[in-house]
UniProtKB/TrEMBL annotation:
Annotated GO CC locations: plasma membrane
Keywords in alphabetical order: ATP-binding, Nucleotide-binding, Transport
SUPFAM superfamilies: P-loop containing nucleoside triphosphate hydrolases
InterPro entries documented for this protein: AAA+_ATPase, ABC_AA/LPS_Transport, ABC_transporter-like_ATP-bd, BCA_ABC_TP_C, P-loop_NTPase
Protein name per its UniProtKB record: ABC transporter ATP-binding protein
Domain ABC transporter: 22-289
Signal peptide: none
Length: 309
């Protein structure tokens, strides 16, 4: 659903909308005696914002770590589907990409990243002394044949490569409205802007799938609203599929196409926001069986506001 023309497609997946993109199949992960995930199965669809929610310690980050290759589950499979559609090319050389399937559960993190599974973390992981532009250019390293250092020094053949990558980075700056901060050191920027730069760096990979681990954690209400809008822009304008871990129920219910709920490492619900809100198992996991689903969402919203007051 592209409503703005970009020269480069920031969406690295050529899968047609609505097709399965990532399948989590009977995944179990243990740390010694701790069962972080037990028999978790669900599917992420191309073109969706898919939220993963659950109380503290439910296994959300562990699941994201399994998808990005940081943890390897003892049982089950995670499969990334690629191709089956047309990949746009800025030079007009669009091409059909054949269907493919990759077993992520056997790959190390750098190989998962090479397949375009991009990840932002709970804590900001940027180079604070480098500018916004430099941090975003570092997000391109996965696609660079020449070293980032050679590109930054404007050295020989690295120059043409740098210009091409610069164009794409400028599109990310435009999409996330980072123009005013382009040359500022990241460490000097407000927290909400730094989180936006982190989102931008993940987008510079041209992700097939974008994994966002609590992108609004620690933000005030206004920053959260901004961030939710940018996540929606990444989804609606750039067409990128997003997996989102978020504690703020209002945000989750507002921007997600689908929600999976974990509790004690088990998947207890999976459906549209409306279906999940009405699911008694979700109500019980959050507050106990005596509460209505609407009360759960309202209580969660009040908890969030209290944290920021
Ligand atoms: N590296 C690890 N070693 C041992 N136990 C771990 C490790 N990572 C996670 N766990 C355990 O696995 C369970 C799930 O943790 P996880 O961080 O995935 O939950 P979460 O839903 O992301 O929680 P939160 O919302 O608090 O971030 C917890 O009991 C946690 O202590």
């Amino acid at each position: 659903m592209l409503t703005r023309a970009y020269q480069h497609s920031l969406n690295g997946s050529s899968r047609p909308q609505g097709r399965p993109l990532l399948e989590v199949d009977d995944v179990s992960l243990r740390f010694g005696g701790v069962k972080a995930l037990t028999d978790v199965s669900f599917t992420i669809t191309q073109g969706h914002v898919h939220a993963i929610i659950g109380p503290n310690g439910a296994g959300k980050s562990s699941l994201l770590n399994c998808i990005s290759g940081i943890y390897h589950p003892q049982e089950g499979q995670i499969r990334l589907h690629t191709g089956g559609g047309v990949q746009a090319d800025p030079a007009g050389d669009d091409r059909e990409v054949p269907e493919g399937q990759h077993l992520l559960t056997q790959l190390p993190p750098h190989k998962v990243a090479r397949l375009g599974v991009a990840r932002s973390f709970q804590n900001i992981e940027l180079f604070s002394h480098l500018s916004v532009l430099e941090n975003l250019m570092l997000g391109r390293h996965i696609h660079m044949k020449h070293s980032v250092l050679a590109s930054m020094l404007w050295f020989g053949p690295a120059r043409n490569q740098e210009i091409e990558h610069r164009h794409l980075v400028e599109e990310v700056i435009d999409l996330l409205q980072l123009q005013a901060f382009r040359n500022q050191p990241v460490g000097s920027l407000a927290y909400g802007i730094q989180k936006r730069v982190e989102l931008g760096r993940a987008l510079c990979i041209q992700p097939t799938l974008l994994l966002l681990d609590e992108p609004m954690a620690g933000m005030n209400a206004e920053e959260k609203e901004d961030m939710a809008r940018y996540v929606l822009d990444v989804h609606e304008l750039a067409g990128v599929s997003v997996v989102l871990i978020e504690h703020d129920m209002n945000v989750v219910m507002d921007i997600s196409d689908r929600v999976s709920v974990l509790d004690f490492g088990r998947l207890i619900a999976d459906g549209t926001p409306e279906e999940v809100k009405a699911d008694p198992a979700v109500v019980e996991a959050y507050l106990g069986a005596d509460h209505s689903a609407a009360a759960v969402v309202e209580q969660a919203a009040r908890d969030q506001e209290a944290v920021h007051d």
